[in-house]
Each structure stands twice: as C-alpha cells, then as structure tokens.
Amino acid sequence: MSRLRVIWIKSDIGYCRDQKRTLRALGLHRLNQGVVHNDSAAVRGMITKVRHLVRVEEAES
Asked: What pTM was estimated for this model as a whole?
C-alpha cells in the first residue's frame, strides 16, 4: 500500500473552521510539520479540502 507525506505549508488563519478541523484531523498541529498516512479515499478527500494549505508527496516505505 502506498503512503503519502502531508506537509502543512500555509497558515490556516482566515480560513473556514472546517478547514482548520481538517488539518487537525490529518494530525497537523504546526506549520512545516509533516505526517505520513496510508493512501485511502478518506485521506485523499481531506487533502483535497485543504490542498491550498498543504504539500503532498509520496513517502518512502
């Protein structure tokens, strides 16, 4: 199964509450923090919602 590294690159100040909650649900707490998730439809949907705030790359196994 492939894995995705999600890195928070832009502040959530001024964005909707649901986008802030999506960042927290992804496990992100501070700028420039990265987390690794299994590639799934649910994670892809969350990434799509905050795609302007995060960077996504393929993670090494």
From this structure: 0.92
